[in-house]
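Data deposition worksheet. Section B asks for the primary sequence of the deposited chain exactly as it was used as input, without tags or linkers unless they were present during the calculation. Section C holds the resulting structure in token form. Section D is free text for depositor observations; keep each observation to a single sentence. Incomplete worksheets are returned to the depositor.
Section A, Depositor: J.P.
Section B:
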Amino acid sequence: MDYQNIKYEVKDSIAYITMNRPEVLNALNAALLTELRHCVDTMYKDVRSISGVIITGEGRSFVAGADISELLDEVPGKSPSVSERFMDGVEETYQTLALLENYPRPVVAAINGFALGGGCELSLACDFRIASTKAQLGLPEATLGLLPTYGGTQRLPRLVGISVAKELIFTARKVKADEAKEIGLVNKVVEPEELIPAAEELIRTIAKNAPLSIKYDKIAINKGMQMTLEEGLRLEKALGGLAIGSEDGKAGIAAFLEKRSPIFEDK
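Section C:
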């Protein structure tokens, strides 16, 4: 696909996705979301050559929400009901963000500016959020009579707690980077020029470890958060069994016993 609304490249085993509609602060429209889904599908096909993913935005915004101008537009071949069209679009975005959330490699949102509405929700589907000192995050949908519907009402409380999530969603207020760090919404705050290097450093640190371990860790955490403690522990045990029986598990133990660095092959 010839991308018009995003930039995508893989360099030194890191995949970079850059939202590229700076004239509208990288607002999410249907075309961009279609390209993002294609991009994520491509990353799955190329997963063995990718150690991690960085998502950021062109210009002064990460993603400043959904493209409001499209919300009420009729679409040829789609339902005449705005509610049905909206829910169909949300379902497609759910699928894309779920694929991103469960990608076997670490995914870092490098938040360079506004991450509002759908942009904040996109960052919530990532494993880590590193924010520039210029970043602002929030879910302002209530000011439009709407709800956060790209996962905001579900992922945000799981990340920062129910009470804090309710405050942010009900008040629709934006939080600056330092406060976002304080409430656990972002992992780290850096100066703008350090944003991408900080994301790259995190990915390279993780990449020193066994890719299979990271994959299973991610499954255990993401799925376990939706389970009872007992169910989560059983999942952890099952994945631990797979890991210790894997080639990488055996290689890691052997290297430890022989006091040398392991060579992992993602097997």
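Section D:
The chain has two domains: 6-207, 211-257.
The radius of gyration is 19 Å.
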